[in-house]
């Protein structure tokens, strides 16, 4: 592996590229590229990313999207082929992981199997040559922080998955690092435990006020916990923003399809009298007036659509379209209706337990607020 | 944790009693084998050791004189001490050489990792006698080292200092032991999840603290097993001391062997063997106490370890890198130089094996075919190999199937008992079996050698197949029975196709062990020597390059067999499909 840093190593690049957000950025990546096999598509491609001090930041993406590689580059387990990694403004691209003020919570927890819980948590402090009495005190505090007081004599194999998770977290936090990296830490836990750990992680992060960078493929986790998140695919960041922005304003088809559930409808946008109208097959929809004319894809969240039974003699109100129910899916807390509107299938989420309200073949009126439609290119 | 690969207790309508009776009947062959071929020989050896020898005839009088002879005689005490000391030193040296190699391979190599591993293992497949003999050619009075030194004028007369010393014995034993320590060390290192090492770096530990606190504690047991193997091998070996040690290199093994052969005092030999065995046992227990470990290493689906990305920047890093490369490369020269020497001299047109080379010839190879005694020995060797492997494969597979299904304390002990012959020093096993066969009134010859080989070939085959069975998905056998197949048909149609590659590999391994075996064979062969025994007898009366030729051929033949086996196994693995996942929730590899 040959790595060329000559272009990004100098002090110049630091002031020009990273200077703009250097004051608040805790971790920043500039033009980071990494490929594992020569010739194969890079795992991470010209990535620019800047993470603020104290925020809970998530990297969200499917398998193979490059999120774990990004995390490993920040941790120092991989060196970028090109680009710079900065920690508090200082270039750490070639700094070995044991000199970086960063801790990782591994997907497999990576607790040392031959050490007790106490020794596992004490390990980073021992390596940093912290005096013995202080180690003892801080290990106790860390155990308390993750509600594992009293488990200090156990070996890892004597702990449950959730308990190991907490110990791994305690080990990552005990040395008070600037940044904690979490690599799908909840992946191996069952659903209920995962949800309670989400709450605990978020509370913990606020409490210790440390930057968390969290890698996950679970959009629910990312939306629930993050201050900001980046959606990644094929080694690139496709959208970066607050969970609400990313959820309601997906920037492209991938994000719209990956986060939440959206109808993606091909359409053509036309302007008539200053108003934007999208024609999808045989019916037309009002869309936000900022849309540009031409071919587009409309992303419409399932829950942004409304449906009510069509009654004879009752005209559709403006913005409503007549359709017929092709399928009804029972979700527990609601229904999903597949409604065919002039040949276009739209999925409508209906809240509440109203299974008897809709049946296959029913005629329904589907309504939508133009502001809930996101117009995407092509 | 994992359920048995082949469920045995699933037949409906059987009473608990019938099941119990059947289970006991199924286990009977295991217990019989253990009693007849492991327990009885050792017991008889103990009995022999308290009998008396009178001018070569064993008299059934109880006496403790043999033991008091062993313990009180300064010579025996010296030999016992020297044996343990030399063997420990050889095992330690081999560990010092092999562990850094294994560490380097596991941490620094990716692409050529398999090549590096196979290159260390290949010498194991080349006759041990050959490898020892090679050192004799290199270090002897008229050996390569001497002739080279004469050539450059460093010495005026050939020096005997290189051969027939304790150092030569140590060197050769170390040489023989390196591959064993390497294999066990490597597999121990390989089992350490990369994420643990990353977690250590992440915690602020540099290379050395990580090694000391994480790598070594997790690898030390595997290294200790390799060390123990090397120790047992060195202790059980009486060939090396006899061939390259001379008088000053004599170890207890040669003396025990001579009690059986020249001296004919079996009881004294048995007493020495048992004393040695107890001493070794004690040594191993102490060793095991030192490497006892806590915690359970669990499989981990982490990213494979990559060479550390930040390496190679500073001068210190570069120097360290150069040293570790040297520690990795140099042992290969040590491993292969002797083999090369053998082959080169097999084509050398001269009766004496000295430098400079005299010219090319194939006459040593031509001479082989006309040597009827040698050809007879070769036929016997092949016959013994095929016979013992046939026994070992059938019996070993049966045993493995039984062990795959039952896990209780008694069976674990029985399994250890069956495996014992593999762990006994060679001449102890040989002596114990010889005593047993003599008491049973057997004629020594091919059948006794065959059974003798089966005692260690069978457990090896059993362990290989058991490891494969344990990795099978248990639901496959259950599915077969669910489809209406009984135990036999389930074995034939479902289990056997899946363990076929393991079976072939195990059989080849067993054959190689048998083909090369000499230490046990020597005790059991009577007037029908196998090839290694025949050659060994020849070696003691001086040697011609004909021996080089036969060894070169054997070496090449073993390599061909190994390569073919490797190819068969690899293509088998492809058709075999995925093995059962180790844990149900193996997290998928992301990004």
Task: Throw out a few tags for this protein.
heterodimer, A: 378 residues, alpha+beta, 24% helix, disordered N terminus, B: mainly alpha, two-stranded antiparallel sheet, 2 strands, disordered C terminus
Structural class, judged by helices and strands of chain A? alpha+beta
Considering DSSP H and I runs of 4 or more, what fraction of the residues of chain A is helical? 10-25%
Largest sheet report of chain A: 6 strands, mixed
Whole-number radius of gyration of chain B?
Answer: 26 Å
pLDDT under 50 segments of chain B (min length 5)? 1-7, 574-591
Order of helices and strands of chain B: HEEHHHHHHHHHHHHHHHHHHHHHH
The count of β-strands of chain A is: 20
In terms of structural class, how would the helical and strand content of chain B be classed?
Answer: mainly alpha
Q: Kindly report the average pLDDT value of chain B.
A: 80
The residue-averaged pLDDT of chain A reads: 85
- Looking at how many chains there are and whether they match, the oligomeric state comes to heterodimer
How many helices of chain B? The count is: 23
Rounded to an integer in angstroms, the radius of gyration calculated over CA atoms of chain A is 25 Å
Which residues of chain A sit in consecutive blocks of at least 5 with pLDDT less than 50? 1-23
Shape of chain A: elongated
Secondary-structure element order of chain A, as H and E? HEEEHEEEHHHEHEHEEHHEEEEEEEEEE
Biggest beta sheet attributes of chain B: 2 strands, antiparallel
């Amino acid at each position: 592996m040959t790595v060329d840093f000559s272009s990004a190593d100098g002090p110049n690049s630091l002031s020009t590229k990273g200077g703009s957000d250097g004051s608040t950025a805790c971790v920043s990546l500039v033009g980071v590229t990494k490929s594992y096999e020569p010739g194969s598509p890079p795992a991470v491609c010209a990535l620019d990313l800047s993470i603020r001090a104290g925020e809970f930041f998530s990297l969200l993406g499917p398998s193979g999207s490059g999120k774990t590689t990004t995390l490993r580059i920040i941790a120092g387990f991989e060196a970028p082929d090109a680009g710079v990694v900065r920690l508090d403004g200082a270039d750490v691209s070639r700094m070995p992981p044991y000199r970086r003020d960063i801790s990782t919570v591994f997907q497999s927890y990576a607790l040392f199997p031959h050490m007790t819980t106490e020794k596992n948590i004490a390990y980073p402090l021992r390596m940093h040559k912290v005096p013995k009495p202080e180690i003892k005190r801080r290990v106790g505090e860390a155990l308390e922080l993750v509600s594992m007081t009293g488990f200090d004599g156990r070996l890892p194999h004597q702990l449950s998955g959730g308990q190991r998770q907490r110990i791994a977290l305690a080990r990552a936090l005990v040395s008070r690092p600037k940044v904690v990296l979490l690599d799908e830490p909840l992946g191996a836990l069952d659903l209920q435990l995962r949800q309670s750990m989400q709450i605990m992680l978020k509370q913990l992060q606020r409490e210790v006020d440390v930057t968390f960078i969290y890698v996950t493929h679970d959009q629910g986790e990312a939306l629930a916990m993050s201050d900001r998140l980046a959606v990644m695919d094929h080694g690139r960041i496709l959208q970066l923003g607050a969970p609400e922005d990313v959820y309601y304003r997906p920037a492209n088809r991938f994000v719209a399809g990956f986060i939440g559930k959206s109808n993606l409808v091909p359409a053509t946008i036309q302007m008539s009298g200053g108003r934007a109208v999208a024609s999808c097959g045989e019916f037309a929809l009002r869309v936000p007036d900022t849309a540009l004319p031409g071919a587009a894809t409309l992303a419409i969240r399932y829950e942004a659509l409304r449906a009510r039974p069509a009654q004879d003699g009752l005209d559709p109100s403006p913005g409503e379209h007549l359709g017929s129910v092709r399928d009804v899916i029972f979700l527990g807390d609601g229904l999903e209706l597949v409604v065919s509107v002039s040949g276009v299938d739209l999925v409508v989420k209906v809240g509440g337990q109203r299974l008897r309200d809709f049946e296959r073949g029913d005629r329904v009126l589907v309504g939508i607020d133009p502001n809930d439609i996101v117009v995407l290119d092509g | 944790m994992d359920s048995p690969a082949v469920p045995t207790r699933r037949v409906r309508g059987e009473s608990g009693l019938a099941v119990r009776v059947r289970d006991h009947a199924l286990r009977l062959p295991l217990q019989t084998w253990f009693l007849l071929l492991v327990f009885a020989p050792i017991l008889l050896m103990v009995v022999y050791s308290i009998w008396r020898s009178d001018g070569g005839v064993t008299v059934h009088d109880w006496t403790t004189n043999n033991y008091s002879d062993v313990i009180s005689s300064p010579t025996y005490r010296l030999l016992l001490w020297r044996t343990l000391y030399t063997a420990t030193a050889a095992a330690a040296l081999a560990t010092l050489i092999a562990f850094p190699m294994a560490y380097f391979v596991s941490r620094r190599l990716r692409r050529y990792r398999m090549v590096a591993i196979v290159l260390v293992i290949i010498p194991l497949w080349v006759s041990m006698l050959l490898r020892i003999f090679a050192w004799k050619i290199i270090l002897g009075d008229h050996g390569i080292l001497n002739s080279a030194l004469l050539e450059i004028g460093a010495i005026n007369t050939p020096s005997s200092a290189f051969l027939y010393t304790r150092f030569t014995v140590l060197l050769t034993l170390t040489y023989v032991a390196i591959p064993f320590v390497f294999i066990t060390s490597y597999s121990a290192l390989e089992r350490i999840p990369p994420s643990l090492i990353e977690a250590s770096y992440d915690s602020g530990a540099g290379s050395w603290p990580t090694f000391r606190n994480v790598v070594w504690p997790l690898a030390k047991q595997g290294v200790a097993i390799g060390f123990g193997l090397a120790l047992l091998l060195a202790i059980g070996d009486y060939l090396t001391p006899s061939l390259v040690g001379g008088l000053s290199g004599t170890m207890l093994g040669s003396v025990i062997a001579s009690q059986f052969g020249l001296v004919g005092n079996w009881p004294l030999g048995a007493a020495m063997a048992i004393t040695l065995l107890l001493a070794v046992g004690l040594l191993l227990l102490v060793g095991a106490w030192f490497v006892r470990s806590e915690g359970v290493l669990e499989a981990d689906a982490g990213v494979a370890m990559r060479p550390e990305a930040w390496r190679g920047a500073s001068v210190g890093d570069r120097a360290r890198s150069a040293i570790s490369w040297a520690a990795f490369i140099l042992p290969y020269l040590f491993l292969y130089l002797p083999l090369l020497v053998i082959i080169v001299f097999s084509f050398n047109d001269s009766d004496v094996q000295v430098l400079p080379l005299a010219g090319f010839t194939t006459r040593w190879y031509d001479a082989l075919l006309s040597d009827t005694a040698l050809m007879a020995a070769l036929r016997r060797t092949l016959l013994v190999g095929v016979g013992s492997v046939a026994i070992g494969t059938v019996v070993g597979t049966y045993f493995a199937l039984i062990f795959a299904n039952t896990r209780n304390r008694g069976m674990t002990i029985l399994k250890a008992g069956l495996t014992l012959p593999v762990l006994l020093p060679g001449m102890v096993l040989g002596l114990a079996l010889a005593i047993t066969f003599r008491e049973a009134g057997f004629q020594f010859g091919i059948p006794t050698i065959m059974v003798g080989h089966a005692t260690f070939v069978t457990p090896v085959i059993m362990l290989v197949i058991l490891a494969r069975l344990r990795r099978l998905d248990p639901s496959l056998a259950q599915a077969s029975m669910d489809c209406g197949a009984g135990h036999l048909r389930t074995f034939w149609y479902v289990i056997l196709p899946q363990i076929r590659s393991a079976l072939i590999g195990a059989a080849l391994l067993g054959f190689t062990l048998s083909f090369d075996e000499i230490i046990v064979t020597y005790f059991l062969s009577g007037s029908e020597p196998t090839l290694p025994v025949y050659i060994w007898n020849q070696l003691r009366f001086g040697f011609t390059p004909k021996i080089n030729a036969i060894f070169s051929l054997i070496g090449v033949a073993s390599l061909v067999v190994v390569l073919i086996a490797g190819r068969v196994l690899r293509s088998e693995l492809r058709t075999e499909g995925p093995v059962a996942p180790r844990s149900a929730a193996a997290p998928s590899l992301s990004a």
